[in-house]
């Protein structure tokens, strides 16, 4: 059945149940996926899924439900059950749905080109065989996704998206003899991203995947910081784009509902203040592959700048969060963020490090509410007097994410664009290595 | 409803068909506000075909009518044939038997949304009244119920279910310097929210203890970075079992080049350490995530990974077992109706020893007891990292100050080789998800361990 028709029927069913306000999303996704397993083509997977999400408000009480059966009978039953669920919920004056929002987004290749997928997988395998033979692609995926959704609310909002995109990802490990002849394994690493044009560049040249595979082969032999630096020290890190993206997740969490409602956000009262290095400009890119500028609660998400020369320009509470906290509502989308490139060539960024490391991946627990963290640096290489040296093992750094954002001293001119994020390398000073 | 048996044809080596229903419930209460109140049902039918060394998989939403089964089987066959464009490949025999049976969890009648909400409200009110200094509370209640009907061309025909519920309790306060800090307690159990008493009265002692730890954290001191003698509380031993040694013992990870690949038969831990991925039963009791038959129709067996310190085995699907020349363990599991089976853990535990936790702490002159972890990651090298959200100093065998959030890390092999005491108790947990292309519900468990490990800090 047509998705818009399903959404309209669902909205009608909720109205029939007496809902004061409601939101429905009818969605359908088709995925085609060529899988590489253990450096061999392995599986072709094609799946279809569909979902109807109903949200209803009765007397300020909210409930939501999701079902994969989109028949009129099923949604009628679900609407009735939802009313009972909501009756059990507490009243909350902050509950509400969007009104008067409208947008129709259609973008990207909507039909899967199977030969493009198999060619991309074959290219990755050829690259591995010829350039990184000691590396095993444990899991590799070349995929196409077509995702459609119709969002309607009782307030007259109608937002639709029809998106098509390709994805590529590689996860693997290198293995081989070290200098003493003993066979060793590298840490694992992964890379990948989304694009609307799979054929415009070789798969291995996208998203930093080829470089990641090469670096794995240089990481079979590792040293600890005692061997590289004589023991614990305080120094600089150069964070690769993936590590930068990890770091910024904490910032996003700090300005969202959970932290704002619970009162744990360290930035709750700091809009307009400089909270990060003046080198940092963080903005949205909600038109990336597979991304629609539509918030989960049914609002059009306009372009947004979160950091402007290190100054926090806004918080991002949802409609509910804004009504709960009294903050201004700022619609946003989880993915689709970019950090502006800087003026420093990557090579110079590295050369500026006296003692430290280039960090490919941060393996760390969730930073504490105040930003404190410690983590193991993975896929990382020692830097001594600007020279990138041995791969590091069993090395930890600790610090505070809020401080790290302030302590960024250089941003690279180069960036990696994965579709979901586009990030440069950044150098941060004053991290404790142990 | 009758289902046509999956049958290999002249053009297929193997076929499996799965009808899978996944029901979830999630209620999140943030400081008394019910911010999430969601129930979901996802039903789908899938087929996976093996032919000429390649796999084809297809899935559709729906309850799995005869027509839908035929459709996904046809699509999976088309997919496997499309893989021929990569050239000829050696076919696989795909060892492993077949299973016919039914294993359904039958717990108490599920709680209504109203009953769940009442209990969440009661927990919030209790905490705010009893601990007036709290800044806020957060309670997450979640249920998850998988029902899978699997048929295979090897004669398998099974109906099985897995059902788990959890409640995360998070208390938030302000540290002495005014910065926010929080601490949480995860409770998980088999069945639905009705199968465990999580009322304020039943949890009173645990809430008091959690609050007491939170107060101690207000004055927390930083950890001293570097190698230390640490007592890993039972909750962490399960994480160590799962993350640090479990993943490197998954057959596909072994084949991918994990450090464990060359260590079979070697000593990888102290003789005090035995580690098992339990299929469904331990000491006569059904475990939290019982897997009697996996999603390839293989009868599930315990996988003894480490026996008294020696690496003895891995976890396998049919394919990884064949590639490594070992017996399948029934470890191929698929998370959602549209997912294909992957090698996954089930109930991964380190078995108890003979010490007590008090004795283990008393035996440490200078070190730390690590009590709670928020998350963990491991590597193919067996290097691991756990975030530590609650820990105390040990000075001359006695507990000292709480320490700030930190991270414990190291090579699991080195850490397990350094184990000099194992407690005689056992902590089980089935909270959260294991991540590996797909999420997965698993359980983990263990006793307390005393070992040498690396703490993050200055």
Q: Biggest β-sheet of chain B, characterized?
A: 7 strands, mixed
Mean pLDDT of chain A: 93
Number of domains of chain B: 2
Which percent band covers the strand fraction of chain A? 35-45%
Q: Kindly report the oligomeric state of this protein.
A: heterodimer
Helix count from the secondary structure assignment of chain A: 10
Query: Any low-confidence stretches of chain A, pLDDT <50, length ≥5?
Result: none
- The CATH architecture assignment of the largest domain in chain A turns out to be 2-Layer Sandwich
Q: What is the terminal separation of chain A in angstroms?
A: 59 Å
| Radius of gyration of chain A, whole Å | 24 Å
Broad shape of chain B: globular
**Largest interface chains and counts:** A-B, 84 and 93 residues
* SSE-based structural type of chain B: alpha+beta
The CATH superfamily of the largest domain in chain A appears as PmbA/TldD superfamily
Name the descriptors.
heterodimer, A: 434 residues, alpha+beta, PmbA/TldD fold, eight-stranded mixed β-sheet, 22 strands, B: 458 residues, 2 domains, seven-stranded mixed β-sheet, six-stranded mixed β-sheet, 8 helices, 26 strands, 20% helix
List the helices and strands and how they pair.
The complex is a heterodimer of chains A (434) and B (458).
Chain A: H1 3-16, E1 21-37, E2 40-58, E3 61-67, H2 72-87, E4 102-107, H3 114-131, E5 135-153, E6 158-177, E7 183-185, E8 189-195, H4 209-217, E9 222-223, H5 225-229, E10 233-239, H6 241-254, H7 257-262, E11 282-284, E12 305-308, E13 311-312, H8 319-325, E14 337-339, H9 346-351, E15 355-359, E16 361-364, E17 372-378, E18 381-384, E19 387-392, E20 396-400, H10 401-406, E21 408-417, E22 421-433
Parallel strand pairs in A: 4-6, 9-19, 10-15, 14-22
Antiparallel strand pairs in A: 1-2, 1-5, 2-3, 5-6, 6-7, 6-8, 10-22, 11-12, 11-14, 12-13, 15-18, 16-17, 17-20, 18-19, 20-22, 21-22
Helix pairs in contact in A: 1-2
Chain B: E1 14-30, E2 33-51, E3 54-61, H1 66-82, E4 100-103, H2 113-130, E5 136-152, E6 157-174, E7 180-190, H3 200-218, E8 226-232, H4 234-246, H5 251-255, E9 275-278, E10 281-282, E11 285-286, E12 303-307, E13 310-311, H6 318-324, E14 332-333, E15 342-343, E16 347-350, H7 357-362, E17 366-378, E18 383-395, E19 398-402, E20 406-411, H8 412-417, E21 421-422, E22 427-429, E23 434-436, E24 438-440, E25 443-446, E26 449-455
Parallel strand pairs in B: 4-6, 8-17, 16-25
Antiparallel strand pairs in B: 1-2, 1-5, 2-3, 5-6, 6-7, 8-26, 9-12, 9-16, 10-11, 12-13, 14-15, 17-18, 18-19, 18-20, 20-26, 21-26, 22-25, 23-24
């Amino acid at each position: 059945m047509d998705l818009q028709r399903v959404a309209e029927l669902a909205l009608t069913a909720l109205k029939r149940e007496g809902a004061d306000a409601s939101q429905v999303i009818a969605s359908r996704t088709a995925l085609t996926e060529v899988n590489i397993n253990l450096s061999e083509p392995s599986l072709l997977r094609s799946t279809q899924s569909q979902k109807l999400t109903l949200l209803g408000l009765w007397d300020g009480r909210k409930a939501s439900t999701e079902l994969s059966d989109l028949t009129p009978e099923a949604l009628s039953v679900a609407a009735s059950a939802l009313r009972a669920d909501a009756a059990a919920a507490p009243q909350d004056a902050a509950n509400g749905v969007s009104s008067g929002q409208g947008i129709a987004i259609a973008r990207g290749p909507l039909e899967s080109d199977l030969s493009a997928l198999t060619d991309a997988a074959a290219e990755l395998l050829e690259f591995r065989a010829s350039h990184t033979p000691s590396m095993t692609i444990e899991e590799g995926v070349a995929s196409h996704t077509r995702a459609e959704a119709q969002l309607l609310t009782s307030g007259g909002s109608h937002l639709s998206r029809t998106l098509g995109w390709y994805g590529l990802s590689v996860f693997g490990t290198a293995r081989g003899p070290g200098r003493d002849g003993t066979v060793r394994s590298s840490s694992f690493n992964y890379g990948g991203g989304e694009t609307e044009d799979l054929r415009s560049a070789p798969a291995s040249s996208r998203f930093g995947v080829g470089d990641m595979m090469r670096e794995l082969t240089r990481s079979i032999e590792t040293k600890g910081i005692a061997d590289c630096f004589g023991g614990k020290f305080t120094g600089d890190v150069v964070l690769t784009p993936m590590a930068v993206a990890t770091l910024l997740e904490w910032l996003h969490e700090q300005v969202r509902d959970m932290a704002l409602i619970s009162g744990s956000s360290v930035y709750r009262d700091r809009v307009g203040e400089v909270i990060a290095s003046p080198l940092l400009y963080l903005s949205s890119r909600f038109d990336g592959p597979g991304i629609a500028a539509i918030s989960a609660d049914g609002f059009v998400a306009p372009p947004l700048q979160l950091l402007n020369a290190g100054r926090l320009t806004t918080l991002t509470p949802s409609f509910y969060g804004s009504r709960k906290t009294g903050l201004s509502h700022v619609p946003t989308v989880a993915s689709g963020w970019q950090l502006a490139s800087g003026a420093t060539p990557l090579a110079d960024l590295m050369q500026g490090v006296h003692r430290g490391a280039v960090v490919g991946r941060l393996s760390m627990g969730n930073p504490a509410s105040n930003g404190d963290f410690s983590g193991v640096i993975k896929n990382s290489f020692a830097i001594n007097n600007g020279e990138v040296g041995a791969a590091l093992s069993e090395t930890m750094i600790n610090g505070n994410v809020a401080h790290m954002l302030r302590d960024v001293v250089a941003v690279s001119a180069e960036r990696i664009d994965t579709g979901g994020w586009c990030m440069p390398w950044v150098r941060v000073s004053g991290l404790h290595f142990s | 409803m009758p289902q046509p048996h999956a049958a290999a044809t002249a053009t297929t080596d193997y076929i499996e068909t799965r009808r899978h229903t996944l029901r979830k419930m999630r209620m999140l209460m943030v400081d008394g506000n019910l911010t999430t109140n969601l129930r979901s049902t996802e039903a789908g039918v899938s087929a996976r075909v093996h032919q000429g060394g390649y796999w084809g998989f297809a899935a559709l939403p729906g309850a799995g009518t005869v027509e839908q089964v035929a459709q996904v089987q046809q699509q999976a066959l088309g997919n496997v044939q499309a893989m021929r464009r990569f050239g000829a490949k050696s076919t696989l025999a795909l060892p492993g038997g077949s299973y016919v049976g039914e294993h359904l969890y039958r717990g108490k009648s599920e709680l209504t949304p109203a009953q769940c909400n009442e209990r969440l409200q009661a927990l919030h009110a209790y905490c705010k009244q009893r601990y007036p200094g709290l800044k806020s509370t957060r309670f997450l209640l979640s249920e998850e119920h998988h029902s899978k009907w699997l048929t295979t061309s090897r004669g398998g025909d099974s109906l099985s279910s897995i059902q788990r519920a959890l409640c995360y309790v998070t208390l938030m306060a302000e540290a002495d310097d005014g910065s926010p800090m929080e601490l949480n307690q995860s409770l998980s159990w088999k069945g639905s929210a009705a199968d465990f008493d999580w009322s304020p009265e039943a949890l009173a002692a645990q809430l008091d203890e959690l609050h007491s730890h939170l107060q101690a954290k207000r004055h927390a001191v930083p950890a001293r970075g570097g190698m230390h003698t640490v007592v890993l509380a039972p909750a962490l031993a399960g994480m160590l079992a799962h993350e640090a040694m479990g993943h490197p013992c998954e057959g596909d990870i072994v084949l991918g080049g994990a450090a464990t690949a060359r260590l079979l038969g070697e000593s990888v831990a102290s003789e005090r350490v035995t580690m098992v991925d339990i299929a469904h039963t331990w000491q006569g009791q059904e475990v939290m995530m019982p897997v009697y038959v996996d999603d390839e129709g293989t009868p599930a067996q315990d996988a003894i990974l480490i026996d008294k310190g020696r690496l003895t085995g891995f976890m396998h699907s049919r394919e990884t077992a064949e590639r490594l020349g070992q017996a399948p363990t029934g470890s191929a599991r698929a998370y959602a109706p549209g997912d294909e089976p992957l090698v996954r853990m089930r109930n991964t535990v380190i078995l108890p020893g003979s010490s007590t936790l008090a004795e283990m702490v008393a035996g440490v002159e200078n070190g730390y007891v690590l009590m709670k972890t928020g998350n963990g990651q491991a590597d193919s090298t067996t290097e691991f990292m756990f975030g530590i959200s609650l820990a105390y100093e040990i000075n001359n065998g006695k507990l000292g100050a709480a320490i700030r959030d930190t991270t414990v890390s190291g090579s699991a092999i080195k850490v397990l080789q350094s184990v000099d005491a194992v407690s005689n108790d056992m902590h089980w947990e089935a909270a959260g998800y294991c991540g590996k292309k797909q999420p997965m519900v698993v359980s983990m468990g263990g006793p307390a361990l005393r070992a040498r490990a690396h703490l993050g800090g200055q």
